[in-house]
Write the structure tokens for this entry.
Amino acid sequence: ARQPFWLKMSVQVVAGVLCRRGHVLLARRREGKPLAGLWEFPGGKVESGETAEDALVRELKEELNITATEIAPLPFGPQAHDSVSFRFWTCAAWDGDPSGAEGQTIRWVCVDDLERYAMPPADGQMIAPLRAFLAGDAHATRAWSSAARAMGGCWTFCCPAAPPPPRDVRNDSR
């Protein structure tokens, strides 16, 4: 069987989209880090031997001091830039109150205001499909994904129907 392209990339990154009452959580990259000052969906690198799900739970704990309890892959993505693949997930439930555990600023942002925040390319390209997805417009999400692929983008629509239900990671036997 052919290996998906995102598993062939030298660096795999996961990011969580935490949603609350029409707002999503953004974190500002700290000074001294690449892309400092830009806003992003929190997450980070998948370590050797880790699944994407395990990496996301770990990264959200390290960055936001929360324990993700329900996560699901977004129905669009993954995306690639240079030798890095990005996979975005929703986080529908968590234990704890998100805080900038590494000293970063965090902010709940209305999905209609996301364009006002300077973001790295991978995060910025999530705005249109994320807005359509959160509005429940699966057709617009599919159309956007198809258009991005036609223009040479790296998006794939991996769930042509509804996304899978969130997985309760608290009782995971892995």
